[in-house]
Amino acid sequence: MVKAIKPDTYKVLKSKIDKRGIKTKFIASKTGIPASYLSQLLNGSREMSTDVALALIKQLKLPVENFLR
Question: Is residue 67 part of a domain?
Answer without folding.
Answer: no
